[in-house]
Amino acid sequence: MTDRFADQMKREAGELGIALNGGQLEQFFRYYELLVERNKVMNLTAITEEQDVVTKHFTDSLSLVKLMGAEAFAGKTLMDVGTGAGFPGIPLKIAFPELNVTLLDSLNKRVRFLMDVCEELGLKDITAVHGRAEDFGRNLQYREQFDLCVSRAVANLASLSEYCMPFVKVGGYFVPYKSGEIEEELEAGKRAVKILGGEVEGVEKFTLPGADASRSLIRIRKIKGISGKYPRKAGLPTKEPLY
Hints:
Layout: H1 3-15, H2 22-39, H3 50-62, H4 64-68, E1 77-81, H5 89-95, E2 100-105, H6 108-121, E3 126-130, H7 133-136, E4 146-151, H8 157-164, E5 168-179, H9 183-195, E6 198-207, E7 214-222, H10 236-239
Parallel strand pairs: 1-2, 1-4, 2-3, 4-5
Antiparallel strand pairs: 5-7, 6-7
Helix pairs in contact: 1-2, 1-3, 2-6, 3-5, 8-9
């Protein structure tokens, strides 16, 4: 691990109130190495420079703590929908080892990569599953079983809510990670959130350290159970959002 990597990781995590020990820093660095190495043979990320990976993937993933507070993770279950290369689920698991994490992705080779990362880093109580959110959201093993559901996937709030809200327990939270201006999207998505048993409680806006990227985290609380009609069959939440 380079000193530069360790210093940047410690500093940016520290700004979020997260103290990383030496073992966690080593895990983050190995994750970075695996990401770059495997990215040469499969499309995992367009961001590969060390400093950019730290800020735009790792720190961005950990920023959930700004909205929820570190105490929100102790002994809790988290579902990461459309996790891709493991963001935000794996960084959150490294920083908060007591979190029980499920990573969901629709591409099998990405899921294999995620399993390799978890094994290489020695992470426990984390699993990667292959499938579509619409199917898993109807599976009783996963439906309304999670304290937290997060997603950095690119989809409008109405569609993303239909993919993610079915996983959240009543009283739990769905937090989508968003970039850029979100007021219009938030307003358009409120009806879908309500139909799906949720309520928007707040938005945390921030800029990533040393980057000009504006980010928003939307905190949506599940206040009642979801209708058996949702999620609708594969493709419909994107083609026909609940506006």
